[in-house]
Protein 1
Amino acid sequence: MKDIFSAFGSEVFRPLVTIVIPGAMAITVWFIALLQKFARLRAIADANHTETIFLLTLASIAVGLLVEDFGSRIEKRFDEWLVAKPGFALHRDEWKSYWRVVFKAEPIGQRYLNTILLRFKFELGTAIALLFAATGLLFTTLSLCSALAGMGVALLAAYLLMEEGRSSHRLLSEIRHEILKGAIPYPADAPPAVQN
């Protein structure tokens, strides 16, 4: 029974951290700006809390998926950057080899890799969400000075998260490199085909 709950926790936690939270961060400022601009929308949201939460949840998921897609594009740029670094020329080849590996027993490093991957996806998603949210500050009722100050803080945080993402990306490559040292490629370890 404990395994069922731990699997459910991980299956819920990963999308929450990588999709829902960044998506919610990206739309919140824009939603506040809409409520401030349109009194009728504010009245509808006040009268229909459950429906509003449901729609905001769906919007968070949709925007979160788009944010994750942008994050994948940035990850591709990180790959290009990393290959140019000394000691990482084989990064792409090792990444493709890693896709084909089947483990008889999960290496200890695999769990660490999954933890760093989750953190990496969160860093990229949050950085992108902050960029999107920062522009929404200009449409709120904040003074221009306050909106620009908020944008500055959000942009700085996005930059720092992007740099952390770059570090996490490099660490992921190093971990995969170490895991591959003891891996057996799938075709060599595959069971013999059943003949009819």
Note: The chain has seven helices and no strands.
Protein 2
Amino acid sequence: MNNTTTIPSGKDIQRKWYVLDAAGKTLGRLSTQAASILAGKNNVLYTPYIDMGDHVVVVNCEKIVLTGLKANKKLYRRYTGFPGGLREESFVKLLARRPEAIVEQSIKGMLPKSKMGRQMATKLKVYKGPHHPHLAQQPIALEGKA
């Protein structure tokens, strides 16, 4: 009987590419699925202190949906750094202006707030339409829950 534990090296990781289609999907459910892949939790060799995650490409982010009345009530706030510089923008306006920011912010908020979390976030790519420039990586299409 062999009682050894395999600890993977960070150099030997074979990273895959996945495509998530956001059309008609709920923002939170899509984000948790993407964050889990970025963190590497779908990998059998998952190790919490090593970035084992794969690359995630999200397309059609302008077609993301929120449940209930959240689309009308949700606000995105940012601070410019100047006195009185708090800026607020509703979900509807930000979706019309920069839908990538909504999906990106949602996914990044589910990653660890550390160096490793920022490293994981670099593997996230979000695009407005159905096309993306990562076809050479032969990404695998993922079907998620609506």
Note: The radius of gyration is 17 Å.
Protein 3
Amino acid sequence: MYELMQLTQNCFYIQSPAKIGLVRLNDTDVCLIDSGNDKEAGRKVRQILDANKWHLTAIYNTHSNADHIGGNRYLQNQTRCRIYAPGIDCAFTRHPLLEPAFLYGGFPVKELRHKFLMAQPSDAGYLTDECLPEGWQSIPLPGHFFDMAGFRTPDDVVYLADCLSSLETLEKYRIGYIFDVEAYLNTLEKVKTMEAVCFVPAHAEATDSIAPLAQANIDCVLRIAEDILALCAEPRSFEELLQSLFTDYGLTMNFEQYALIGNTLRSYLTWLKEGGKLSAAFEGNRLLWERI
């Protein structure tokens, strides 16, 4: 873990629970794409920087999930590097309490106020084309989270953040976190057509061919949607649907999974309702969902 893996002359990634991109800008200066899940990850990154006599100039966060920004504060304090994050995710990076509050739908219980959902705040600026290194391209990848972005470097390496999961993850967990299902599917369709020397997903192996994995993720989303529709053959409340999904997928409910999968289920229900496949009605002071 935290081994530096070289892809091209200037592009690397650090093997970690969520891969950290590292791009060499010249003989001494480097930047990161994300920073790992906590202060300890930041320390591991700092050791790699010191061992190679590299100077960290900036961290480009793909989005604000805690496992991607957890090392920000430590590395910024240590190196005075700049930090950039896209759109709404910049606000979440500056004010991390927003993430568990958003997932839970209110002030989060203490079981959600931990480093896996709430990183330390960092002084992030808004990601714009002007703040990117020369030759870089920012790639909008919405769906998994608000304004998630990936990056294409001059070496033609594409860092894809969390827009897809490995086959092993899909099989093990069945349902992963999605904020906007329609945007997520559109992103995957776009990714499926991309070409690059190498693709680096945060939660799958680096590859020179991303289309098969993108299609597998699309198929998984559509299967989950069909499962939800099948559960709605009769009117069902959100809590009933969530319980059935956990049972059918062999998941164990706790506060973290309740927040993550519950938030995702609501996103599926919105997408299916707006697509004309589900109806929603209030009966007996309950919101009930039913297949059309």
Note: The chain has a mean pLDDT of 97.
Protein 4
Amino acid sequence: MPTSSEAAPFVADRLMKRAGIVSLVSLVSLAAISAQAQSVDADRPGLLAATTVVGRGRAQVESGIQRSWASSSDSTTSLLNAPSVLRVGLSNTWELQVGHSLVNRVSERLGTDTRVVRGWGDLSLGVKAARPGEALTPGVVAYGTVGLPTGADEFTSGRPLVSGLLQLTWDLSERVSAGSVIGYARTIEAEAGVSAGLVGGSIGVSLPAHWATYVEAGAFPDASGDHAGTVGGGVTRIVRDRLQVDVSLNRGLSAPAAVWTLGAGVSVLF
């Protein structure tokens, strides 16, 4: 089980996944698909989430593959994982979410030696509330999430992890949107838990033929002083009303963020 200092990256990582088990593409694709009833509106793949929920009695599955690389003077580490989330609509403003990453593989090369570790990640249970924006009124998204330490030793926070996020988005024009998000996560333990924050923002543009693109930046401050940051962007396309695909690329600005993270995913509305 990780120590408190070892658990810190999991707190920041959970916030980033939440803010994409969460995500950002919906911000930039919202203008393109809001007029289509029962159309997919995904919470992946970036920092900000859709300003909609899936709707009462509906379900949406969002999954992807991510590959991250980080290196130092004497070692190289890569992570392959597949974060997934099931979104279930309760009403026009509320939904339940269940997130997991069954596929996790870390490869660490030190000199001529290579160490490979595989395992499953922690289970995440959350509630999302969302209200789309209107005129000068921003869209509002709020999350509450509990992460359960069900993962393998190398891929768990080791303790329950509680997190929350608040997001505001604005439609600057018919095609351009902007958003910001703040979040906080903390492990639950007898002594002082490990905590981390999230501050991020993005600008997105909807394009013809159901394409959309975005750029984003985020920071993950924590009490230890190991403040991570990331910048990046991505592209999404709604292939059919209920099917979206996406690709994304992020660059880490400081440890413990990965140097590069490449992702691709799919979201399906049922």
Note: Confidence is low (pLDDT under 50) at residues 1-11, 18-37.
